[in-house]
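Appendix B, Record 12. Input sequence as logged:
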Amino acid sequence: MVDSTLDPLEYYTRPGLMTDAQEQASLLAGLPTDVAALCQVVQGLLLHMLWAERYGVKLPPERRQETEIRRVAQKLRRIQELDARPLTVARPLERRVVSECRDFSTLLCAMLRYQGVPARARCGFATYFLPDHYEDHWVCEYWQAEEGRWVMVDAQLDQFQRQVLGIQFDPLDVPSDGFLPAGKAWLLCRAGQADPQKFGIFDMHGLWFIRGDLVRDVAALNKTELLPWDGWGLADKEDKDISPADLALLDQAATLTMADNRAFPALRALYENDARLRVPPVIKSYHDTGVEMVEIGGLGC
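Logged structural output:
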C-alpha cells in the first residue's frame, strides 16, 4: 500500500533502481553542485548516438551496444573503462560512452539525487529538433525550492547542438512549449487539440507511440527509467487490443503525471496497483534485429 502522505520531494531525493550509483557512488563525490556545471560534466562523458557523425565521430558497430546500458552504475563503470580520470574531466569524443537522450537525463538525475536535490527524468516530446514536429525525447526536472517549481533541463544540448539547432531558449530552463511530457501530449491528442501523427521519431508516430511514452513516463516518475525501446503492459499492446478501460486508465495516468505535487501519492498508487502500468520482472526490448526478453532485477527494492 502506498502511503497517502508520501512526500514527492523526499521520494525524488533518493536514487531509484536505475539511478543508484551503487559501488560507483564515490565517483559522484566532489562534483559541482551548480546545475549548469553538472550538465557540462554529463556532456563531457556521453556521446549521443544520433549526433556522432555530426561531431565527426564514426562509431564502430559494437560501440552502439553501449546504448543498451540501463543502470547508471553500469554506465559509470563503462565511463571508467574508457577513461579512468575524474568525471569532471571531459573525455575526447571517441572515449565518451555512446548514449541517447534518456541517458543524459538519467545521469544528471542520478547526480542531483546523490547531492540531495529532488530530481526526476521525464519521457515525452521536444519541439526544437524538427519544425512542426514533436520528437521523442527525454529531459530531467529538478525541484527549485526558492521558486517552488519543477525546472526542466535538457542536459543533451551542448554548445554545438544549440548552434546547429538554432536554440534560443536556456536549456537549463526549457519552456513548457519546448518539451511536452508524454501525458500532456496524450491528453492534447485525445482531446483533438494536437495531431498524433506529428509525435514520434523516424517513421514511428501516432497515438500508439504517445501511449508507449506515457507508460514509460509513468514508470520514470516511479523511479524506473527504462530505455526508449523497452515495452511492457500498455506500452506493448496493439491499438486494436486497447479497451475502453485501458483508455480510461491512460487518461487518468496522464492527468496525474501533469498534476502538482499533491497528486503524487495517487500516481504512486496507480502505478503500484495496476499491472498494465507497472514494470514487470521481464520486459520486451525492441531492436533492429528483433525482440529480446530482458529481466529487470531488483524491482520492488
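The mean pLDDT is 96.
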